[in-house]
Design a protein that fits this description.
about 350 residues; alpha+beta; Jelly Rolls; Phage tail protein beta-alpha-beta fold; seven-stranded mixed beta sheet; seven-stranded antiparallel beta sheet; 10 helices; globular
Length: about 350
């Protein structure tokens, strides 16, 4: 384990909260992004700390426009927040360590620091108290195969592999979960307590509905099968209807909203690859995810479309059908497969 990535976020060799705020705002460099992501992957405790940090940010950001603070107030707010997130109820309690010699952070007068301080002042009064009371979250992860679980309110969730979710032990006051990766949700109706999913910079709010949520490489994709959902981030507030797909890119003002035509997104829970005039590259992308391979398609084949359903078939069986259907060749080299005339 990388020791430098495993320490207190405010420590001399760890991740400072200042950097995490810049990461949330999308103002980090590629090197900073790599550093934060390596730190998140180094230890589950780091991910737990970041999830709490991120939730505080989301719950308080909408109050910023009505908050007027002096520079002295924003400096004090930032220092107050940093003290709170470093209390033993958070990362230090998990690690069993502290950093008594840590020096106070000198606040940079840049825009992101001022905004962050205002957000986090509000959060220190509200959200962080909620997080402290609900520190004993439950968590489950799908590593090499998808998993299905029932949440405390009876909602059903199917996690795709390499995905994880955390949520409170009970939903007495709020129904909130945090997702990394991809999952399908079938939410139990409760008009008094809307269900919220947090992933990256996006919040999804629902009452009773079913939808697929995927977050990967700073892109969030939501496909609604039934009901309505509300999707918000720092730049958008969008309602998504049944049979619609919404795609958001972190930090970008543009978005894509379109009708759902492909059914391939269901493969990890139905064990079916449903192709209906599906372009070959689109099917290849789903096969790559399902079977952990890389598929290279000759440019002359990229406009081919396929109509069939693959049910519980191996990759070799699927490739054989593709070869026979189009009269092409599939060759392997390690984990790479090449499709060519």
């Amino acid at each position: 384990m990388n020791k430098d990535l495993h320490t207190n976020p405010g420590g001399p060799h760890g991740i400072h909260e200042d950097l995490l705020v810049k990461y949330l705002l999308g103002e980090t460099s590629p090197d900073d992004n790599a550093r934060v992501e390596a730190w998140l992957a180094a230890d589950p405790a780091n991910r737990h700390f970041y999830n709490h940090f991120q939730l505080i940010w989301r719950e308080s950001r909408h109050l910023y426009d009505n908050f007027n603070a002096t520079d002295e107030q924003t400096d004090a707010a930032w220092q107050k927040f940093r003290q709170r997130v470093q209390r033993p109820t958070h990362l230090q309690a998990v690690k069993g360590a502290s950093d008594p010699g840590q020096r106070p952070v000198r606040i940079n007068r840049s825009t992101w620091t001022r905004v962050a301080a205002v957000f986090l002042l509000v959060a220190s009064i509200t959200s962080i108290l909620y997080l402290t009371r609900n520190a004993a979250d439950r968590q489950f992860a799908a590593t090499t195969t998808p998993l299905t679980d029932t949440l405390p309110d009876g909602s059903l969730i199917t996690l795709n592999k390499r995905s994880d979710i955390s949520y409170p032990a009970n939903f007495k006051k709020q129904r909130t979960v945090r997702l990394q990766g991809e999952a399908f949700f079938k939410i139990a109706p409760d008009k008094e307590k809307p269900f919220k999913v947090y992933t990256d910079n996006v919040t999804i709010t629902v009452l009773g509905t079913s939808f697929n949520l995927r977050n990967k490489e700073n892109t969030t994709e939501i496909i609604v099968e039934s009901g309505l959902i509300r999707v918000t981030d720092s730049l958008h507030d969008v309602i998504v209807h049944p049979s619609e797909k919404l795609i958001l890119h972190k930090g970008e003002s543009s978005l894509t909203k379109e009708g759902t035509t492909s059914q391939l997104y269901k493969y990890y829970r139905t064990k079916e690859f449903i192709c209906d005039n599906t372009p070959l590259p689109q099917l290849a992308a789903s096969l790559e995810e399902a079977y952990d391979v890389k598929i290279v398609i000759d440019p002359s084949l990229r406009n081919l479309q396929i109509n069939t359903i693959f049910r519980n078939q191996s990759l070799d069986q699927i490739l054989n059908i593709i070869q026979e259907t189009f009269g092409i060749r599939a060759t392997r080299s390690g984990s790479q497969i090449t499709l060519q005339p």
